[in-house]
Write a structure and sequence with these properties.
Layout lengths: L2 H9 L2 H10 L5 E3 L2 E2 L2 H14 L4 E7 L2 E8 L8 E7 L19 E2 L2 E3 L7 H16 L8 E6 L10 H7 L7 E6 L4 E5 L2 E10 L1 E10 L3 E2 L8 H14 L8 H14 L7 H6 L5 H4 L6 E9 L5 E2 L2 E10 L4 H12 L3 E9 L2 E2 L5 H13 L4 E7 L5 H4 L5 E4 L21 E3 H17 L1
Length: 438
């Protein structure tokens, strides 16, 4: 089969067709309370699941902020249910920056291109195609599978998983574990393919700095300038170095990577992380707390010293470090600068053991016999954070066997986001086996 025919065949698979359809629906989430297209995408997914014979429920957290929940009954209802979830919103994309239409769902060079191909409409398609394929074959999972497609993940989950957890917790009764995005993809370590199973996430805090001073005319002398006070605080915070601190997850990951890469004992943690190739983009920031200044604003006219000025921090905390990190930020901000936490999502860390982890490793090796499966701590966050309030253990497992030369982590929220077609097909096959066998 030549390359062109192979690409055409892959593009015609159900998982690719679904991903392509979803990408062509612009579901951009522009920030708190402002999103589009989620209801259209929910209706599309609902039709696919109902066509397969599943009963779906749709819950609206706000106008067109829709969330879909369906339960696929298992053979043994006494087993804890498994939740499989995704989100339908994406971050915005500026077409001027892209080499393709970000909402065109173009197939080119063996890949599907477009906003959401990686985060996370490709995974949504894998979930939908897996369920539909198993039902077409007349198969049934061992345990109940709770399928959820959420709104608003890209803006803190307030209209999605967090809202459902608060308003409709009964939907998740009996759920023990959950799987979703940003885990299960492969990286190359010294020529060996390893899959990073996401067993935890750093906490996410979005904090606002507010500095106050004395307003006045720009021609006068001012020793109480809010903008200067804020700039000094931002400078101190932005220049602060946070030490490497290993959690149970990152300590185990680094040791496994060290052995695979043949590095000596005592190798610097950052050097070990770099041995994971492109995976280092996610691994290195998981080794320490990270604080970035992301917004800075103040003033309204060139000749007016403003009374107040503000900035926003994106704070990613290691498990158990939230309070200490906030205390240090407040100390660095200094007098006259208030620190208010506006979004507060918890850190998670699950042990790299248990029946689900074992079944994931077993399933992966059935499809890729040489696979190594490693735990890792995601430096960002997913809908697993709100779900953890119900005692649900969340893992990141969207299985993708990737080319060793593809910088996959850089494609999350990136320009020219894309995913290999054969990776989607591989992921659908692995996921189907896992849902039926676990």
């Amino acid at each position: 089969m030549n390359q062109h025919t192979g690409e055409a065949d892959l593009a015609d698979t159900e998982v690719v067709r679904i991903a392509r359809d979803l990408i062509r629906m612009d579901t951009s989430n522009h920030g708190p309370g402002k999103a589009e297209g989620e209801a259209e995408a929910t209706d599309y997914c609902r039709a696919l699941l109902e066509e397969a014979g599943l009963r779906c429920q749709v819950f609206e957290a706000g106008k067109d902020r829709t969330n879909l929940v369906a339960r696929w009954p298992g053979r043994d209802p006494g087993l804890p249910a498994l939740m499989v979830h995704g989100h339908l919103d994406v971050v915005p994309a500026d077409p001027a920056d892209w080499s393709v239409d970000p909402f065109g769902g173009e197939v080119r060079d063996g890949m599907l291109w477009g906003r959401g191909a990686v985060d996370m409409k490709g995974t949504d398609a894998m979930i939908l195609a897996s369920v539909r394929e198993a039902i077409r074959r007349g198969e049934q999972p061992r345990r109940d599978i709770v399928l959820c497609l959420f709104a608003d993940e890209e803006s803190g989950c307030a209209h999605g998983s967090a809202w459902l957890v608060d308003e409709h917790p009964h939907l998740f009764e009996g759920v023990g574990n959950a799987i979703s995005e940003v885990g299960g993809y492969s990286v190359d370590i010294a020529g060996r393919r390893a899959y990073l199973l996401q067993t935890g996430e750093k906490g996410a805090l979005w904090a606002k700095l507010t500095a106050e001073g004395t307003a006045g005319h720009g021609s006068q002398l001012h020793d109480d300038n809010a903008l200067v006070r804020l700039a000094e605080a931002v400078g101190r915070i932005g220049r602060t170095t946070w030490p490497v601190t290993l959690t149970d997850t990152t300590a185990e990951l680094l040791e496994r990577v060290r052995l695979l890469a043949g590095l000596p004992l005592g190798t610097d943690p950052s050097r070990i992380a770099e041995a994971a190739g492109f995976g280092a983009r996610f691994i290195k920031p998981s080794l320490q707390n990270v604080v970035n200044v992301t917004m800075f604003n103040g003033g309204y006219k060139a000749n007016v010293v403003p009374e107040r000025a503000g900035a926003v921090l994106d704070v990613r905390c290691l498990p158990g470090h939230r309070d200490a990190v906030l205390d240090r930020i407040r100390g660095l901000a200094g007098p006259g600068v208030r620190v208010d936490v506006e979004t507060d999502l918890p850190a998670l860390e699950n042990p790299f053991d248990g029946d689900l982890v074992g079944r994931i490793a077993e399933t992966l090796r059935r499809h890729d016999p040489d696979a190594e499966v490693l735990p890792y701590l995601l430096p960002a966050g997913t809908d697993n954070k709100p779900l953890s309030r119900l005692g649900i253990r969340g893992f990141g497992f969207a299985p993708l066997r990737l080319p060793a030369d593809l910088d996959f982590p850089s494609l999350f929220h990136g320009v020219d986001e894309r995913v290999p077609l054969d990776s989607l097909v591989f992921g659908r096959e692995v996921l189907t086996d896992l849902l039926l066998g676990y």
